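Q: I'm writing a short methods note and want an example of a predicted protein-small molecule complex. Could you take the sequence and the SMILES for oxaloacetate ion and return the bound structure as tokens? Please keep the output block clean; save any remarks for afterwards.
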Amino acid sequence: MFRSALAQSRRAAARSARFASTSAKQQTLKERLAELIPVELENVKAARAAHGKKSFGPVVVDQLYGGMRGLPALIWEGSVLDAEEGIRFRGKTIPECQELLPKAPGGQEPLPEALFWLLLTGEVPTQEQVTALSKDWAARAAIPEFVQEIIDRCPPTLHPMSQFSLAVTALNHDSAFAKAYQEGVSKKEYWGPTFEDSMDLIAKLPNIAGRIYRNVYGQGKLPAINADKDYSWNLANLLGFGESPEFVELMRLYITIHSDHEGGNVSAHTGKLVGSALSDPFLAFGASLNGLAGPLHGLANQEVLLWLRKMQSKIGENASDEAVKEYVWSTLKGGQVVPGYGHAVLRKTDPRYMAQREFALKHLPEDPLFKLVGQVYNIVPSILLEAGKAKNPWPNVDAHSGVLLTHYGLTQMQFYTVLFGVSRAFGVAAQLIWDRALGAPLERPKSYSTAAINKMFKDKTA
Ligand SMILES: CC(=O)SCCNC(=O)CCNC(=O)[C@H](O)C(C)(C)COP(=O)(O)OP(=O)(O)OC[C@H]1O[C@@H](n2cnc3c(N)ncnc32)[C@H](O)[C@@H]1OP(=O)(O)O
Ligand SMILES: O=C([O-])CC(=O)C(=O)O
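A: Understood, no commentary inside the block.
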């Protein structure tokens, strides 16, 4: 039975690949997805028939107390994280994506539109398909007036991430999925309105982010979306940096590399969990943002800049290695973490850190803050190793993003995680669409109390 399911799914995949090669240029993302879904349903059926009863090994009690590290628990299609090598988007490393994905005319960094296509389909889109996606998102970019008002009424002292989450949650007012559900849509059709909501969500984020930025930091009126430009150009322009081609390139790289980091990280898992209750993509991603706003997760990029600035005010600019070492030790001795270092899964330098370092070496090698980030990179890992607690002493993505934004004049560090959030929507949305297409069930793992654990293992030796 398994063999025939597998053969059937291979035949379907071959048919769809043939079709894709002849009609790829004409196909929209939704059309391509509609072809891939039946193929993937067969793939999943075959994988479950072959492996459904196989074990990943024992679960130990420490994993329940230890934040579920290493516990295999989720299906996530867009990316898989290797502890040593870092992230691969649909099997492709960051340098491979930089090489293979379509770029803007004259640009060198991949277009996030292409990355979204890759996350959803596992395929590299054509330039025409990417351009069509840019146009589609531009056409969907306007946000309802009442959402504009919600943002405008927020006090500038409310953290930009809280404003962001409020606005995204409010988009649920016009959710195609929520409406279709109320009208009794069949389970088999869930993915269609989820796709529409996801496209709307991604498309509207630049206007939301731009409005928050301009309100909080008094940067004047928001310009209109330019339908002839790509997503990152529009995002940069809404923030006031459309005239800087290097900043636009930075946005393309930034949105691409922050998009997805497999399923277990706080923001991705939260989105998937909330979506599993059939909350629409706006509600699900609003929840993701609340998780991303924590200092151990996405807020770390803000914390890194704050920490570096505090360091500079304490020990001065161009400080010696000895002074930096002393500052790092004082952070640890104060019972605080060194922001931007360590990771729950990675055990080597994050390739997203390296991609940003390479961008800096190319575009801003003499920037004093970049030099400090490099100096810290040479110093912190050995101190964390000596301190002996952190399992990974190496830098993560957040150790490098702030210095790039600061270089181009986006110095308001409380805003940085909003940009991370714009990017993370790509990964969360792609998985929400697949979850609804594949009929993913309500998430509901088992929990235990300490008393229950003690009772369970009473009188047992192992
Ligand atoms: C996009 C992202 O989310 S990337 C991560 C962004 N977050 C940061 O950069 C914050 C700084 N880093 C950290 O706090 C951690 O490394 C985390 C949260 C990222 C991972 O946490 P864990 O998986 O629990 O890390 P790990 O198993 O290595 O922790 C063991 C101990 O080392 C400590 N440790 C880990 N990283 C650091 C660090 N950068 N500085 C100081 N101590 C650290 C932990 O706090 C923990 O201490 P405890 O035993 O007293 O509780
Ligand atoms: O994977 C994680 O736990 C955190 C992270 O780097 C991300 O979500 O980008």
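A: Remarks, as requested: Residues 296-298, 300, 332, 337-344, 389-392, 396-398 surround acetyl coenzyme *A (ligand 1) (CB under 6 Å). The two ends are 38 Å apart (CA to CA).
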